[in-house]
Write a sequence for this structure.
C-alpha cells in the first residue's frame, strides 16, 4: 500500500469542514445584513458565525494521519 493514499475519513473531514465554513459564513453575513432584526444579539451572532467559519477552515487545512 502507498503512503500517499487518501482515506475516506480524510475526504469526509474536508467535506464537513467545507459545509461548516459555508454555514458560518452565511450566519455571519445574514446577521450583518439584518442587524436590526437580530437586535442586541447581532454582534454575538456575527462573532459566532466567524468562529464557526474559522473552525471549518481548520478542518479543511488540517492534515490527518
Amino acid at each position: 500500500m502507498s503512503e500517499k493514499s487518501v482515506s475516506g475519513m480524510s475526504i469526509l473531514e474536508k467535506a464537513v469542514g467545507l459545509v461548516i465554513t459555508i454555514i458560518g459564513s452565511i450566519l455571519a453575513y445574514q446577521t450583518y445584513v439584518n442587524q436590526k432584526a437580530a437586535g442586541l444579539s447581532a454582534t454575538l451572532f456575527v462573532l459566532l458565525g466567524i468562529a464557526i467559519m474559522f473552525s471549518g477552515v481548520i478542518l479543511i487545512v488540517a492534515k490527518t494521519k
In short: The first helix runs from residue 8 to 33. Residues 8-61 form one domain. The chain has a mean pLDDT of 90.
